[in-house]
Amino acid sequence: MENQRILITGGAGFIGSNLANKLSKKNNVIVVDNEYLGIESNLDESIEFVNTSVTEDDLPTDVDIVYHLAALSSYAMHEKNPQKGARVNVEGFVNIVEQARQDGCDTVVYASTSSIYGNQTDPSPEDMPVKTNTGYEASKLARERYAEYFSNHYEITLAGMRFFSVYQGYGGSEEHKGEYANVIAQFAEKIAAGKSPVLYGDGTQTRDFTHVSDIVRGLVLAGEHELDGIYNLGTSKSYNFNTVVEMLNEELNTNVKPKYIENPIPESVYVHDTCANYSKMKNETGWEPRISFDEGIKRVCQQYQ
Q1: What is the pTM of this model?
Q2: What is the pLDDT of residues 161-181, one digit of tens each?
Q3: CATH homologous superfamily, domain 5-167+210-237+275-285
Q4: How far is residue 228's CA from residue 233's CA, in Å, rounded to a whole number?
C-alpha cells in the first residue's frame, strides 16, 4: 500500500500505533485518538495526530481508507460504563463510517472480536453461529450488523476483523495499557521482576495468541484487497495460561510460580477457550501467521535480557 491517505481511529493505541507506524512509511497517515487507551508518543513524528473522540462531528474522514480500531476494548471497560461503551463502540462506528461515506471513502476496515464465538477449542470459522453474553460482545456484533447495512445499502466495502488474543509485550506499544494489556505482557513483566503472575481459576484456559505484527499485516491486506464481510485473524493454535508461564520462565531463566485466584468474571460470560480458523482470510489474501509462539515469547522477553 503506497501513496494513500489513511485514517486510523484509535491509532495511538496498541494495535493502532503499530499499524499507523507501518503505513506511515509510504502513506499519509492521520490518527484520531482521545488518548483514553492510547498515547501520542507511540506514534512516529510523520503522523498527523488529532486528539478527539470518534463520536464527534467534522472528523478527518476525507481519506482513501479508514481503519476503525477505536473502542472500549474489553469486558471490564464496557461493564464500568455500559452507556459509554455503546456510544463509543456502536455510535462511534456509525459516525465514522457515515462521515467517511459522505466524504467519498468507500473502503473501511474495522475491529470486531473473537469473543462472540464463546468457548471453542476447535478452530472457529466465521460462519459458525455466534451469540453475545456481554455488553462488549453485543457492541462488536452491532458493528458487524451496521457494516452489513452500509455495505448492502451504499455499496461500500467494510471488513470486520475478528482479532484473537493480540500481544507484543511491554517492549512494544502495550505498556501504557497496564491492566488491560495482553496477559502475556503482564505475566512477563511480573516474572521478570520475580513476582508471581496472577492466573484466574486453575490456569487451564486457552487463547489463540497472535503477534501484533501478523495482525498488522492482515489489516494492511484487508485494505489493499478491499475486503467485505467478516474475517478471522488468528493462528489456529492455542496455549493455556500455565504453559505461557512455563515458557516465559524458561526464556527468562527464572522459576517463578503463578498465583491462582478465583475468577472475578462470572463463569457464565467468561470465555475460557479461543481458537481461530483463518482459512477465509488465507484464501482471499494469502495471509497466514508468520510469528510462531516460541518466537513471539522470545520477542516479549528480549527487553528483560
Answers
A1: 0.96
A2: 999 999 999 988 888 888 889
A3: NAD(P)-binding Rossmann-like Domain (3.40.50.720)
A4: 15
